[in-house]
Write a structure and sequence with these properties.
The structure is a homodimer of 464-residue chains. Chain A has three domains: 1-33, no CATH class; 70-286, Enterococcus faecalis V583 domain (Enterococcus faecalis V583 fold); 293-463, v583 domain like (v583 fold), CATH 3.90.1700. The first copy, chain A, contains 16 helices and 18 strands. Chain A has helices at residues 19-23, 43-51, 53-68, 79-82, 106-118, 125-133, 192-215, 222-230, 241-258, 262-273, 278-291, 354-357, 372-375, 379-391, 416-422, 451-463; strands at residues 8-12, 27-31, 71-78, 91-94, 138-141, 147-148, 160-166, 171-176, 220-221, 303-309, 312-317, 325-328, 333-336, 349-350, 393-402, 408-414, 427-433, 441-448. In chain A, helix 1 (19-23) links the parallel strand 1 and strand 2 (27-31). The longest helix of chain A is centred in the middle third of the chain and has 24 residues, at 192-215. At the A-B interface, helix 9 and helix 10 of A face helix 9 and helix 10 of B.
Chain lengths: 464, 464
C-alpha cells in the first residue's frame, strides 16, 4: 500500500486493521465503531480473536490449503462401494446439518421416499413414508461422510458418485450424478419417470462413465475446468453451461475411444447435453475435497462448510471441528418457472453452498452476468455481490479468476470475524424446490446466510 | 431523452445532432466544431449527407436488414459445386480487395502457392510460384463471389465451404473450413503437413459433415450460436472457444446419429476439439450472408464490407455498390508466439473483419474480457472499445447482447459519416501472419481501420 505520509486517516472499526498504516508510518486515529449486526457483548471476543496471532496464522494456513487443492476425478462408482456407511442396511444421506423426520421439509421427505422406492426397499411412496417415519430407514448428513448433495442431496447405496481426490492432501470426496432440472429427485419429485431416470443412471450412465474414466490416461483436474468456465460466463453453482460443455467434451472423447456401442454413447451424450447443470455435482465433490482439508484446523475462524437441509442452515467453522451452528433456513427470492410463485417455495436447501466456501458460486457471480436471467437481479448486482464478498473473505483465490475484474481472484475463505465485524453475510444463489414432496424444482434465486449461526460460532470459539 | 427545459445546452459538431433537442424544446447553441481527422473541404458533404432524409431512411433500412438476418447452415460442400467461378479452370479466390501478384504480400503468396500444390496443379511450390506469377492461375477476391476467407482467405475448387443461407432474404454466402492455428495455409504456410491436413479435410472432414448436415432434421441457426457464445466470453472473431464447443456439440450429436464409423467420428471430434477457432469460418459465412443484404442499398452510408489482403485494406459502403475504397493495410500490435516479434508481422490481412460489420468481433470485445490474453490490452480496454464503437454505429443489435453491459445490444452498422465526424475509426482484432511465405501465424493483435478510405468513400458519395 502506497500512502502519502502527510495524510491523516481515520480507521473505523477494529484497531488491528491499522497495522498496514503503522507500517507506512501514516498518522491515523482509530474510531471504535460497530455496525449494528454485531451484539455489543461479543465485541470483546471478536477483538480478541481478530488480534490473536494464533488465529491469524491458522487463517493464513486455511487460505493456503483452499488454494493448494488439486481435485482430480479418479472414479465414478456406486455409493455403496465408496461412501462410508452405505454398504449395508437401509441408510440414506441427505443435505445440510442433521434433521429429524418430524422436522424435515417437504422436498427432502419426497426425495427420501423416492430413494426408498428406487432402492426397492419400498413398493411405493406410501410404504416408503411409513418406513422412514418409523425409523426403519436411517439417515444422516452427507457432510458427515465426505460427501455432498445438491438440494435434498439424497445419497442412496445404488447411486453412482463422482469420487474426487484432492491430490495435494490425499483425501477424497463424493457427490451423486446430476439428474437434470425440473421434476427430479433432488427437488423432491418421486414419480415413475424420476425413478426410471435414476435406474437408467445406475444401469447405463454410471457404469459406462466409470469404464471410460478408468480407461483415461490422465485423470481430469476439476479445478482446471472450473477456472476455464469462470472465463466463459459460469460461476459454477447456478450457471454451469460452459463447464458442462467442457466436461461433456472430455467424457465424449473418452467414450468414443472406449465404448463400442454407439447408441449408448449417443444416449449419454444427449443426457449430458440436455442438462446444463450436469457439471455441478462434479464441482461440488471437488469443493468438498477442498474444504475438508480445513475441517478442524485449530484456531481458524474460516468456514469449512455451509449447508442447508431445507429446515435449517448450518455452518461449520474450521477451528470448531465438526460442530454445526444452525439457524432456520432463509427463503430465497428469485425467478419462478411458469405456473409457480414465491408461495410455492421451500426454504433454502442443499449442500451446493460448498461452492461459496471455496470462492466460486455466488462469490464469483461477477464472472457470470448472464446468470441474472436465471436467479434474478442485474449484472451490476452480480458484480457488487463479488465485491462485497471480498470484504468478508480472507483473500483472493490464486486458482479462480474473474476476467471482467482484470483477472482478480475470486473472494475465498469466509472469515466469521469479518462477517460479524461488517454485518455482511455470505451471499448464496440457489435452486428453489417446491415446499411439498413430489413436485420438484420451481425456480432459482438468491439470499444471505443468517446472522445467528455466526454469533453462535463466535461464542463457541470463545468458550473453547 | 428527458431533459429539463430550463437547461441551456451547447451542441458541438453537426447541427443535425440537435434534432432531439428541438423535439424537447430545450434551448441550445450550436458550436461548429470538427475534430482534426475530417478535412475541412469535406465538411460540407458530410453535413449535407448527415442531414439528408434519404440517407437517414437508407441507413435505417440497412440497420433493419442487419438485424433481420436469419443465417442458417444449409450445406457443406466442395467450393467447385457452390461458389461461382470455381467449377472450371485454375481459379483461386483470396481475402480483401483485388491485388496483383506483384503487390501481393508474403503470406498470401505462400497460401496461393500451397493451394496450387493442394489442387495438384503444381508439383511443388516453386512450380506453383511460376504458374501464379505468369498468370496461368487467375485469382480474384472472395468478396466478389458471395464468399469470405480468414487471413489469406484462399479458396480453391476442392476445399469444402460452409453454405449459409440468410432465410430472411434468400441469399447464400460461403466460407472455407478452419484448419487450426499456427502453421496453416491461411497464414501462408505450405509445408507437406499443411497440404496433408487440407487433403484429409476434403477427403474425410468435409464429406462426413456434409452427410450429417443433410441428415439433420432442422438446420442450425448460426446467429443463435453466436448470441449464446457472446454470453460465454466469446466475441466470435478472435475468441471462439464457447462457440466452437457449441458447434462441436451440435455436429457430434448429428455424427452419432448418422455416421457408422466410430473412428471417423473420433477423428473429427478431436480435430474440432483441438481448434478453438473452428467456429470462426462458419460465423464469417453467416456475417457475409448478413452484410450482403445491404450491398448496393442506395444512399446508405453504412459499411457493407471491410477486408484486407495484407497489402491494402478496403471498405465498401452500402450506397456505393461494389466499389472498394482502399488504403495501405495497417500493422497490428499485439502478442506474439514464442520466437516471433513485431518485426516478423505482416500488415493486417483477411476477410474476418466481416464480423465487425455485423456488430460482433472487435465491436463486441466487452463480452470477451479474457481475449486480452490473446490479443493484448486489459479487460477495461475491451469494454472501452465496445463503448467507442457505439459512437460510430447506427444502433444496438437486437440479436447480439453483452451481458456485462446489462444486456446492451452490440454496436451495429458502421456509419462512415459518424466515423469522419468523430475521428473514431473502426476497431479490429486479428490474427497476425508472418510476412514471409511458408511460415504461418506468429501472433494476434489489434488495430484501427485507416482514415483515408473513409474520406475517399465520402468524396465518392458526393460525386455520385
Amino acid at each position: 500500500m502506497k500512502l502519502d505520509k502527510n495524510l491523516k486517516l481515520i480507521n473505523i472499526g477494529l484497531e488491528n486493521f491499522t497495522e498496514a498504516l503503522k507500517k507506512t508510518q501514516t498518522s491515523y486515529v482509530n474510531l471504535d465503531y460497530r455496525p449494528p449486526s454485531a451484539p455489543p457483548e461479543l465485541m470483546e471476543i471478536l477483538d480478541e480473536l481478530a488480534s490473536s496471532e494464533k488465529v491469524k496464522k491458522a487463517n493464513e494456513e486455511a487460505f493456503k490449503r483452499l488454494n493448494a487443492a488439486q481435485p482430480f476425478l479418479m472414479d465414478l462408482l456406486p455409493a455403496r462401494e465408496a461412501v462410508e456407511g452405505l454398504d449395508e442396511g437401509m441408510n440414506l444421506y441427505h443435505a445440510g446439518p442433521p434433521v429429524t423426520w418430524e422436522n424435515m421439509c417437504g422436498p427432502m421427505r419426497g426425495a427420501m421416499m423416492g430413494a426408498c422406492v428406487y432402492e426397492k426397499w419400498a413398493k411405493n411412496v406410501e410404504e416408503a413414508e411409513e418406513m422412514l417415519s418409523s425409523g426403519k430407514v436411517s439417515f444422516s448428513p452427507c457432510h458427515h461422510h465426505s460427501a455432498v448433495g445438491p438440494m435434498a442431496g439424497i445419497l442412496s447405496p445404488s447411486m453412482y458418485v463422482w469420487a474426487v481426490e484432492n491430490k495435494t492432501f490425499g483425501n477424497t470426496a463424493y457427490c451423486s450424478l446430476n439428474e437434470g432440472l425440473g421434476k427430479v429427485l433432488r427437488f423432491g419429485a418421486y414419480s415413475d419417470d424420476v425413478i426410471e431416470r435414476l435406474t437408467w443412471m445406475h444401469e447405463v450412465l454410471g457404469p459406462t462413465l466409470r469404464k471410460v474414466i478408468a480407461a483415461s490416461e490422465s485423470p481430469l483436474n476439476v479445478s482446471t475446468i472450473t477456472a476455464q468456465a469462470l472465463q466463459m460466463g459460469d460461476e459454477c453453482h447456478n450457471r454451469n453451461v460452459a463447464a458442462t460443455n467442457l466436461l461433456q467434451k472430455e467424457l465424449t472423447e473418452l467414450m468414443l475411444k472406449t465404448v463400442d456401442d454407439k447408441k449408448t454413447i449417443l444416449d449419454i451424450f444427449t443426457f449430458i447435453g440436455n442438462n446444463p447443470h450436469f457439471y455441478l455435482n462434479l464441482s461440488m465433490a471437488a469443493c468438498k475435497a477442498t474444504a475438508d482439508t480445513i475441517l478442524g484446523l485449530p484456531n481458524s475462524t474460516i468456514l469449512s462448510a455451509m449447508a442447508r437441509n431445507g429446515t435449517e442452515i448450518g455452518i461449520r467453522v474450521a477451528g470448531c471441528g465438526d460442530k454445526w451452528f444452525t439457524a432456520p433456513s432463509g427463503m430465497p427470492k428469485g425467478l419462478f418457472f411458469s405456473g409457480f410463485s414465491q408461495e410455492d417455495a421451500n426454504p433454502d436447501i442443499g449442500d451446493s453452498t460448498i461452492s461459496e466456501i471455496v470462492g466460486i458460486g455466488g462469490f464469483a457471480m461477477a464472472a457470470a452476468p448472464a446468470i441474472v436471467k436465471f436467479v434474478g437481479g442485474t449484472p451490476a448486482d452480480a458484480m457488487n455481490f463479488t465485491l462485497e464478498m471480498g470484504i468478508i473473505t480472507h483473500g483472493e483465490s490464486t486458482v479462480f479468476q474473474i476476467p471482467q475484474m482484470d483477472f482478480k481472484g475470486t473472494p475465498t475463505g469466509v472469515d466469521i470475524l469479518k462477517v460479524l465485524e461488517t454485518g455482511i453475510f455470505p451471499f448464496i444463489n440457489t435452486g428453489i424446490a417446491h415446499k411439498e414432496p413430489g413436485i420438484g424444482q420451481v425456480g432459482a434465486g438468491i439470499l444471505r446466510a443468517p446472522e445467528s449461526s455466526f454469533i453462535d460460532a463466535l461464542e463457541y470459539m470463545e468458550v473453547k
